[in-house]
Specification:
The complex is a heterodimer of chains A (about 220) and B (about 200).
Chain A: H1 2-13, H2 21-37, H3 41-62, H4 66-73, H5 76-81, H6 87-116, H7 124-149, H8 155-182, H9 188-217
Helix pairs in contact in A: 1-6, 2-3, 2-6, 3-6, 3-7, 3-8, 6-7, 6-9, 7-8, 7-9, 8-9
Chain B: E1 2-12, E2 15-26, E3 30-34, H1 41-49, E4 56-60, E5 66-69, H2 81-91, H3 99-103, H4 119-133, E6 137-141, H5 149-164, E7 169-173, E8 184-186
The chains are: A mainly alpha (about 220), B alpha/beta (about 200).
Chain lengths: ~220, ~200
């Protein structure tokens, strides 16, 4: 499984791997919002947590359909399915690889972009923490969505429709944690919920994803 | 070790294509599947490899010894030939033997990106994968597509001298003659009757 993780990370950073794609999208959205909303610093401060979380979510969504589609096209997926690796493990590794290539860079870049949105100083720590806790759930839920739609032509749109509703709890608790942090309130309930969603999705969704893959490989 | 297939029925997209297929392949033996396009060679091989469930019947061989290879090689174009093969060896917990490069005439291509290879060269990398994963029971779907005559001979001699000689088993769907004098199985007699049960309801389930 380490071999698969290493290969996926190597593929992501090579030409056409789409490593910077999510990050660039995140950057563009966050840079554009102040232009669209106008220069009122107070308004920006108020909407910053929501904007940062929505942008991070959409950036993660952007690269989801690559998780299995490329392996399906070049025939790696049936070969992996007949290899000694359990398909559940393959799904788990794919989710982790997606997080390392999108969720992690987004988390690290978010504080810098928070500055552009005039995020309240007390919220930076919580922004970093909530993204670190929440983005793994986005990757794992997305891996499940990608497994459901692998092999479909233009499955990307269908996958977005399937995945977005599942993203809503993560978004609510993520943005709420940052907002409470910005207001100087205790964000720990939201953070605990985020951690719960992440742990739950990593515990359950690899099994669901592998079942979906098995059906789609027939 | 033995591959036993008894009374196997397979379906593609819910439509039964072959029924009552039975054969045994002993250790060190290979079987060539023959039949016109669309008869169900690929479907049969995918079922044998466990990628899709059989309608009925049994496939029996020791667990975790099977490997499947199809028209698509599972070769990543952004990785070099060595990286590709090392990955598959790693996944199967095997080492990457040096001689595999010689066997499949890949010595000069080791550090080339797989994306820059010709179709035939890529196919050779795909076949070399079979040489590194150390699986005993191979299900090969058109292994010689886009290979030139020399490479076909190379593959045939690997199959005979290394794989089968070491007690391997192979079931091969191919239209060309590998020049190995292998037993053949014509699939036409096993063609499923058009209205064989189970198929028509599938879309409504």
């Amino acid at each position: 499984m380490i071999a698969l993780l290493r290969r996926d990370l190597a593929l992501a950073v090579r030409a056409g791997g789409g490593f910077g794609l999510g990050l660039a999208f995140f950057l563009i959205v966050v840079v554009l919002v102040p232009f669209g909303v106008g220069p009122e610093a107070e308004l920006l401060t108020r909407i910053a947590p929501g904007i940062l979380w929505v942008a991070a979510l959409l950036a993660a969504l952007l690269s989801l359909d690559r998780i299995f589609a490329l392996d399906f096209e070049d025939g790696s997926l049936p070969l992996l399915a007949t290899s000694p690796l359990p398909l559940e493990g393959v799904a788990l590794v794919k989710g982790i690889a997606h997080w390392v290539t999108t969720g992690l860079p987004l988390t690290l870049a978010a504080p810098v972009l928070g500055f552009l949105l005039n995020l309240a100083p007390s919220a930076y720590l919580w922004l970093l923490l909530s993204l670190a806790l929440g983005t793994p759930a986005l990757s794992m839920i997305g891996t499940f969505g990608a497994a459901l739609t692998v092999g479909l032509r233009r499955g990307g749109l269908l996958m977005s429709l399937l995945v977005l509703p599942l993203y809503i709890p993560t978004l609510i608790f993520g943005a709420e944690a940052v907002r409470r942090g910005a207001d100087g309130l205790d964000p720990s309930t939201s953070l605990l919920m985020l951690a719960g969603i992440t742990l739950g999705s990593f515990a359950l969704l690899p099994f669901a994803a592998s079942l979906a893959l098995r059906v789609n490989l027939r | 070790m033995e591959l036993k297939v008894s009374d196997l029925s397979v379906a593609r997209g819910g439509v039964p294509v072959l029924s009552g297929v039975s054969f045994d392949v002993a250790e060190g033996q290979a079987l060539v599947l023959r039949g016109a396009n669309g008869i169900g060679k690929t479907t049969l091989l995918r079922t044998l490899a466990g990628l899709q469930p059989a309608l009925s019947g049994n496939v029996d061989f020791p667990e975790d010894t099977g490997a499947y290879a199809s028209h698509t090689d599972g070769i990543k174009t952004q990785l070099t030939v060595t990286e590709n093969l090392a990955f598959w060896a790693d996944v199967h917990g095997a080492d990457l033997p040096d001689r595999v490069f010689k066997t499949f005439d890949l010595e000069d291509l080791r550090t080339r990106l797989a994306g820059t290879l010709s179709a035939g060269q890529k196919r050779r990398v795909g076949l070399a994968r079979l040489g590194v994963i150390g699986r005993k029971v191979l299900f090969l779907d058109e292994p010689t597509v886009s290979l030139d005559a020399f490479s076909v001979k190379m593959f045939a001699s690997w199959l005979r001298d290394e794989h089968l000689a070491q007690g391997g088993i192979a079931v091969i769907a191919t239209h060309i003659d590998l020049g190995l004098d292998l037993p053949e199985l014509e699939l036409a007699p096993f063609r499923a009757a058009a209205d064989a049960g189970g198929g028509s309801d599938e879309a409504f389930l």
